[in-house]
Amino acid sequence: MAVCIAVIAKENYPLYIRSVPVQNELKFHYTVHTSLDVVEEKISAVGKAMADQRELYLGLLYPTEDYKVYPSHMIIVYYTPVCIFFLLIENILLYRHTRYGYVTNSKVKFVIVVDSSNTSLRDNEIRSMFRKLHNSFTDVMCNPFYNPGDTIQSKAFDSMVSAMMVQAS
Amino acid sequence: MSRQSNRTTDSKKMNAELFTLTYGALVTQLCKDYENDEEVNKQLDKMGYNIGVRLIEDFLARSSVGRCQDFRETADVIAKVAFKMYLGITPSVTNWSPAGDEFSLILESNPLVDFVELPDNHSSLVYSNLLCGVLRGALEMVQMAVAVKFSQDTLRGDNVTEIRMKFIKRMEENLPAGDE
């Protein structure tokens, strides 16, 4: 159910952001950006604890939020009964977005935004998604033509991410 | 890769990634230095040649195969013994030309190109050209002049990697051309 996957570098700029459906891209960028604050907080909270594989996974970053998204108008408004009268009912989509975070030992962060309206993904599935992401990311790193700090343009990484997003929806 | 044969398989596996990364660093550095794919291909071939003329001694010492009677036998030895010994893969020998002087080695996997994706600005780079040089240099030391090139490459989108080897002539006993 991943609707957005982002890879963020140590210096907090994005190396890779992909979202499905594409028209809400800006909103997802914003969402991921705000999640970064939560990630930073969690990292500093852990403090001197030696990060093992379990602690790389940060879990749910933020309480679930409701957004009402109107594809035809691209406006984000909070759900109020009044709005129904103003917009076509068949265009109303209610998404609940949950964000999950994962940080590597080299301070590269992965953020997954999922739409949990259909089924709630179990923790294990999210963990395995992060593991796959991490593995693909290390493969990208090992590419001798990739300079650390560049945006990720690897086709293998793209196809892995697409598979993860498709498999859910 | 040339070491005494009492290493365990485990340590060979560890070194494979380091080997791949080292080769990758070598190719990218060459690209940065020469900035021209053709030039890099030539340099890789030259480097491979220098490796090959030395590697053949090690190979003959370790494998103790005798003199090959014809080119077919050479092809089999290269595929089944040499590649297995040094890269841990066994390519298949196919596509013999009617005259019997040209054949293809099909590699399902190429350990040099693990994790590698060629960027668009290096489309004419033959990444594993070192292998061509090695084969050419090694065979030259056993008095066989061959032409080696890649006809298919997984980095360019093909399914397999194919090396085409053509026998040119049997050489007289003389010293190799040497480094330029």
From TrEMBL, chain A:
<keyword id="KW-0931">ER-Golgi transport</keyword>
<keyword id="KW-1133">Transmembrane helix</keyword>
<comment type="similarity">
    <text>Belongs to the TRAPP small subunits family. Sedlin subfamily.</text>
</comment>
<dbReference type="InterPro" id="IPR006722">
    <property type="entry name" value="Sedlin"/>
</dbReference>
<dbReference type="GO" id="GO:0006888">
    <property type="term" value="P:endoplasmic reticulum to Golgi vesicle-mediated transport"/>
</dbReference>
<keyword id="KW-0813">Transport</keyword>
<keyword id="KW-0812">Transmembrane</keyword>
<feature type="transmembrane region" description="Helical">
    <location>
        <begin position="70"/>
        <end position="89"/>
    </location>
</feature>
<keyword id="KW-0472">Membrane</keyword>
<protein>
    <recommendedName>
        <fullName>Trafficking protein particle complex subunit 2-like protein</fullName>
    </recommendedName>
</protein>
<dbReference type="InterPro" id="IPR011012">
    <property type="entry name" value="Longin-like_dom_sf"/>
</dbReference>
<dbReference type="InterPro" id="IPR044760">
    <property type="entry name" value="TRAPPC2L"/>
</dbReference>
<dbReference type="GO" id="GO:0048471">
    <property type="term" value="C:perinuclear region of cytoplasm"/>
</dbReference>
<dbReference type="Pfam" id="PF04628">
    <property type="entry name" value="Sedlin_N"/>
</dbReference>
Automatic annotation (TrEMBL), chain B:
<dbReference type="InterPro" id="IPR007194">
    <property type="entry name" value="TRAPP_component"/>
</dbReference>
<dbReference type="Pfam" id="PF04051">
    <property type="entry name" value="TRAPP"/>
</dbReference>
<dbReference type="GO" id="GO:0005783">
    <property type="term" value="C:endoplasmic reticulum"/>
</dbReference>
<comment type="function">
    <text>May play a role in vesicular transport from endoplasmic reticulum to Golgi.</text>
</comment>
<comment type="subunit">
    <text>Homodimer.</text>
</comment>
<keyword id="KW-0564">Palmitate</keyword>
<comment type="similarity">
    <text>Belongs to the TRAPP small subunits family. BET3 subfamily.</text>
</comment>
<protein>
    <recommendedName>
        <fullName>Trafficking protein particle complex subunit</fullName>
    </recommendedName>
</protein>
<keyword id="KW-0333">Golgi apparatus</keyword>
<keyword id="KW-0256">Endoplasmic reticulum</keyword>
<dbReference type="GO" id="GO:0030008">
    <property type="term" value="C:TRAPP complex"/>
</dbReference>
<keyword id="KW-0449">Lipoprotein</keyword>
<keyword id="KW-0813">Transport</keyword>
<dbReference type="GO" id="GO:0005794">
    <property type="term" value="C:Golgi apparatus"/>
</dbReference>
<dbReference type="GO" id="GO:0048193">
    <property type="term" value="P:Golgi vesicle transport"/>
</dbReference>
<keyword id="KW-0931">ER-Golgi transport</keyword>
<dbReference type="InterPro" id="IPR016721">
    <property type="entry name" value="Bet3"/>
</dbReference>
<dbReference type="InterPro" id="IPR024096">
    <property type="entry name" value="NO_sig/Golgi_transp_ligand-bd"/>
</dbReference>
